[in-house]
């Protein structure tokens, strides 16, 4: 559980931290679009180099980014098993008894794994270099044009920001409950299926109670401070784009064009 780092902000002094949240959000969207383009291994190599360079520019350690990927390992192993049984194209890599494992099953799993890793690296870089409040302001500004068609920009931005902010808090609460239950003799690792289900219930029930209590406390605190959804609000902090922000968005757009060229021309 402690390996889950999505949503954690790291207050480092880097050029990425100083950039406007709107520019970083737009750049992230452009890079995510690039990741979904089937550009082959050449395209993903280019994307990987650019994303790793950005992570290093943000002064984030690769170990920190790797922690954000570790929870996905189980899903990738499960995906590999599904592909091994479902995909029957390509060359036969090896045979286990009468069961044959084909090359396309392994290649498709690697292909999806690379995509997921790049996506996690991009989103981790955004949340680790952007304060939750700045992220809220950036999302709200980007959604402002949609207010004309009835989209509640501020409310959506607030919900996203609160969700990201409370991910690390819920992880810490889960670890605390697991330790408390273990001290009472609850074994979450061993035992029969029925015993494991009861152990998981002893973890889920107090976690939900704690989450709802935190939500109620937060709602009461916001109400006590005069927060009213839908009302016109003023800002103390005003966002302003600088040259580095325009450069980031331009580089992201150029990267998207390059990936399109690799995918559809080369």
Could you walk me through the main structural features you see in this protein, from its secondary elements to its overall organization?
Helices cover 68% and strands 3% of the residues. The chain folds into 2 domains: 1-152 and 238-266, no CATH class; 170-229, no CATH class. The model has no long low-confidence stretch (mean pLDDT 82). The protein contains 9 helices and 2 strands; from the N terminus they run H-H-H-H-E-E-H-H-H-H-H. A two-stranded antiparallel ribbon has the order 1-2. It is flat. Helix 1 (21-36) runs parallel beside helix 9 (243-264). Strand 1 (92-96) and strand 2 (99-102) form a beta hairpin. It has 266 residues and is mainly alpha-helical.
Brief rundown of the structure:
By secondary structure, this protein is mainly alpha-helical. 68% of the residues lie in helices and 3% in strands.
Distance N terminus to C terminus? 43 Å
Low-pLDDT stretches are none
Task: Tell me how many strands there are.
Answer: 2
The SSE order reads HHHHEEHHHHH
How would a crystallographer describe the biggest sheet? 2 strands, antiparallel
Query: Which outline best applies?
Result: flat
Could you tell me the radius of gyration in angstroms?
22 Å
Residue share in β-strands: under 5%
What integer is the average pLDDT? 82
Roughly how much helix do the residues carry, as a percent range?
A: 55-70%
When the domains are counted, the total is 2
Structural class by SSE content:
mainly alpha
Structure annotation, total helices: 9
Strand order of the largest sheet: 1-2
């Amino acid at each position: 559980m402690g390996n889950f780092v999505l949503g954690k902000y790291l207050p480092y002094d880097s050029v990425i931290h100083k950039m406007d949240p709107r520019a970083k959000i737009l750049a992230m969207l452009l890079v995510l679009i690039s990741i979904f383009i089937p550009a082959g291994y050449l395209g993903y190599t280019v994307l990987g180099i650019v994303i790793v360079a950005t992570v290093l520019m943000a002064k984030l350690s690769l170990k920190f980014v790797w922690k954000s990927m570790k929870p996905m390992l189980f899903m990738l192993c499960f995906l590999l098993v599904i592909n091994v049984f479902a995909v029957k194209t390509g060359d036969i890599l090896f045979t286990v008894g009468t069961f044959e494992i084909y090359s396309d099953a392994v290649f498709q799993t690697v292909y999806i794994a690379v995509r997921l890793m790049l996506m996690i690296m991009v989103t981790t870089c955004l949340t680790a270099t952007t304060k939750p409040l700045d992220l809220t302001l950036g999302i709200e500004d980007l959604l402002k044009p949609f207010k004309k068609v009835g989209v509640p920009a501020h409310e959506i931005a607030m919900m996203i920001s609160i969700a990201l902010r409370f991910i690390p808090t819920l992880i810490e609460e889960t670890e605390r409950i697991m330790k408390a239950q273990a001290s009472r003799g609850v074994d979450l690792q061993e035992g029969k299926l029925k015993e494991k289900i009861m152990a998981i219930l002893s973890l889920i029930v107090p976690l939900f109670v704690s989450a709802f209590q935190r939500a109620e406390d937060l709602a009461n605190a916001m109400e006590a401070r005069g927060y009213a959804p839908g009302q016109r609000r003023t800002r103390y902090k005003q966002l302003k784009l600088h040259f580095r922000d325009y450069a980031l968005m331009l580089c992201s757009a150029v990267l998207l064009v390059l990936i399109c060229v690799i995918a559809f021309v080369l």
